[in-house]
């Protein structure tokens, strides 16, 4: 719950916007600010104070205890210009809240916590439970002291600048070990606990069995990702309550799916009761992994619960990210977030240069020169299969004449794939030219390196006959100079010489240039590989210097040739 406190009319107005946007997450504290802050501090996880930072600091000072337990506090100024993360930046969630509040109110987030300020991910914000010397190890990272990662299994972590060896360590482990004095333990959600229970099995018995199994196997309860059982037990109160108390989801499978899983300890009792010879082991093993604790029964007599524990491997993550046509503000926030999320970045060197400032310290950058597309795709997939978080980047949209298809042609279903769309060249150029894509349009690459020219020409002819607006990608290079004139000649068989043609070079980049000409007037020598060429349909017009294709054309207005 987020407590909202304000003292002035302007503050109250901003407060009400927040309350309206997040009705279930917020509670408004009325009355004098001092009392309101005290009450909210006691009752809420986080506070947003529409007060001066000075006033807020004075009110909070006597209330502050421990940063692990205190609520995070964000201040918003009277003008609504800044959302300041004041205390509890990481643990209290104030940094994140400052970003959220700023986005909602159109304010600027102000975050001063050191790890965020220099682009390092805080160890407590890696998305995994962290135990031990979080502050000391974070400080060591910030000060550039060597911190080593000891990962017992691969996990797709965000980037952290780990060293080979160091006096400080971050240990990724699901084992029930204690952190050393200069050590942080990260708990990956790697354990799946399969459970079975007779009707009416008490939660104490189910939970007790799970905790005992973990303890005896030396495993940390904080690494339990989920409980798994058979569909028929999806509402068994003891199992449901055990999942709730552990704070993990309960996943259930049909009996016939579980029956198909081969297990070391099948038995007749569950076969008769629910239709599978194994519930606990089969449910735990269902998504693959290593059986760490074979089926065991609770100690009660008669035993009403069974459990088994499996360690599942981390799944690598491949983000295929379009960077847009060039301008930074045409790179989407989602693309920027994925660039920060990845610990391995794969791309063409000139695209890496474009976003180098967005990459966090600790990111491994695998850049290569022109060509070598297949190899880049293979590298990205191979890194993801090792369990890393990988971003494969491309200009414009990464799926348009770019890396997404060779990469996904390589990828198997043992990795997660996330696609981030980007503004492709045709759209960037369209916005520069006016509204050339207002009706049906197609993109055609004139590169015959991978496609026979006959195929390309057939597609150009089809577009010409169908009167579709055409954008040519890869239109002309030093070694490929006859294709564009040939394609324009094919279009000229079906369109007037005066048909508008837009030529945009380096759309949205500092040296952007654009020309609006005609089919007859286009000089191919002005076109190169940094260019797209958009040819209008028979209804496209040059209106006040802008290329406009009508939304729909009324037949009687179409020119002679199109009737
Ligand atoms: N994935 C990219 C296209 C890669 S093919 C995208 O979605 O935009 C490369 C071709 O795209 C270039 O030869 C050029 O024709 C075109 N192109 C890419 N960026 C461009 C830009 N900023 N301005 C003009 N054309 C561009």
Question: In a few lines, what is going on in this structure?
Answer:
By secondary structure, this protein is α/β, with parallel strands linked by helices. It is about 30% helix and about 25% strand. β17 (about 345-350), α13 and β18 form a beta-alpha-beta unit.
Description of the structure:
This protein has 563 residues and is α/β, with parallel strands linked by helices. The chain has 5 domains: 2-112, Rossmann fold, CATH 3.40.50; 128-186, no CATH class; 192-210 and 218-311, CobE/GbiG C-terminal domain (Nucleotidyltransferase, domain 5, 2-Layer Sandwich); 317-423, 3-Layer(aba) Sandwich (Cobalt-precorrin-4 Transmethylase, domain 1); 426-554, Methyltransferase, Cobalt-precorrin-4 Transmethylase, Domain 2, CATH 3.30.950.10. The chain contains 18 helices and 28 strands. The strands form 6 sheets. It has a 6-stranded mixed sheet, with helices on both faces. A 5-stranded mixed sheet has the order 13-12-11-15-14. Strands 18-17-19-16-20 form a 5-stranded parallel sheet, with helices on both faces. A hairpin with a 2-residue loop joins strand 27 and strand 28. Helix 7 (203-217) crosses helix 8 and helix 17 (453-465) runs parallel beside helix 18 (483-492). The radius of gyration is 30 Å and the shape is globular. 43% of the residues are buried. The site of S-adenosyl-L-homocysteine (SAH) has 26 residues, from helix 16, strand 24 and strand 26.
């Amino acid at each position: 719950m987020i407590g909202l406190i304000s003292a002035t009319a302007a503050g109250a107005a901003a407060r009400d916007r927040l309350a309206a946007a997040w009705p279930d997450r917020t509670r408004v504290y009325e009355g004098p600010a001092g009392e309101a802050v005290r009450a909210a501090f006691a009752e809420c996880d986080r506070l947003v104070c529409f007060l001066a930072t000075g006033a807020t600091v004075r009110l909070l000072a006597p209330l502050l205890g421990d940063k692990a337990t205190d609520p995070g506090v964000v201040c918003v100024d009277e003008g609504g210009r800044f959302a300041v993360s004041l205390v509890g930046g990481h643990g209290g969630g104030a940094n994140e809240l400052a970003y959220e509040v700023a986005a909602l109110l159109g304010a600027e987030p102000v975050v001063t916590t050191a790890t965020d300020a220099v682009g390092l991910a805080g160890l407590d914000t890696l998305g995994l439970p962290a135990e031990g010397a979080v502050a000391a190890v974070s400080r060591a990272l910030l000060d550039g002291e060597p911190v080593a990662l000891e990962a017992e299994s691969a996990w797709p972590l965000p980037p952290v600048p780990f060293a080979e060896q160091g006096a400080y360590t971050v240990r990724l482990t699901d084992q029930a070990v204690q952190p050393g004095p200069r050590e942080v333990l990260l708990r990956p959600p790697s354990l799946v606990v399969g459970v079975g229970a007779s009707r009416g099995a008490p939660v104490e018995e189910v939970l007790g069995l799970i905790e005992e199994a973990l303890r005896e196997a030396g495993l940390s309860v904080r690494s339990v990702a989920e409980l798994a059982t058979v569909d028929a037990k999806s509402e068994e109160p003891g199992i449901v309550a055990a999942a709730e108390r552990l704070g993990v989801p309960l996943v259930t499978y049909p009996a016939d799916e579980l029956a198909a899983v081969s297990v070391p300890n099948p038995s007749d009792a569950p076969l008769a009761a629910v239709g599978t010879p194994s519930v606990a082991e089969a449910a735990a093993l269902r998504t693959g992994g290593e059986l760490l604790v074979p089926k065991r029964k609770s100690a009660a007599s008669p035993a009403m619960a069974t459990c088994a524990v499996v360690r599942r491997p981390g799944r690598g993550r491949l983000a295929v990210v379009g960077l847009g046509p060039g301008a930074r503000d045409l790179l989407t926030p989602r693309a920027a977030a994925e660039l920060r999320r990845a610990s391995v970045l794969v791309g063409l060197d000139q695209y890496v240069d474009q976003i180098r400032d967005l990459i966090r310290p600790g990111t491994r950058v695998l850049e290569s020169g022109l060509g070598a597309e297949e190899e880049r795709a293979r590298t990205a997939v191979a890194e993801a299969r090792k369990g890393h978080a990988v971003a494969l980047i491309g200009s414009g949209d990464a799926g348009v004449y770019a890396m997404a298809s060779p990469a996904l042609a390589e990828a198997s279903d043992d990795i997660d794939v996330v696609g981030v769309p980007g503004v492709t060249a045709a759209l960037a150029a369209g916005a520069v030219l006016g509204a050339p894509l207002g009706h049906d349009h197609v993109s055609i690459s004139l590169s015959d390196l991978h496609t026979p020219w006959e195929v390309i020409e057939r597609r150009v002819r089809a577009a010409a006959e169908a009167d579709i607006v055409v954008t040519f990608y890869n239109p002309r290079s030093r070694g490929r100079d006859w294709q564009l004139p040939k394609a324009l000649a094919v279009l000229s068989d079906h369109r007037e010489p005066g048909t508008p043609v837009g030529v945009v070079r380096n759309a949205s980049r500092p040296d952007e240039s654009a020309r609006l000409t005609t089919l007859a007037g286009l000089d191919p020598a002005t076109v190169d590989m940094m260019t797209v060429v958009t040819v209008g349909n028979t209804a496209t017009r040059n209106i006040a210097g802008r290329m406009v294709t009508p939304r729909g054309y009324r037949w009687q207005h179409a020119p002679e040739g199109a009737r």
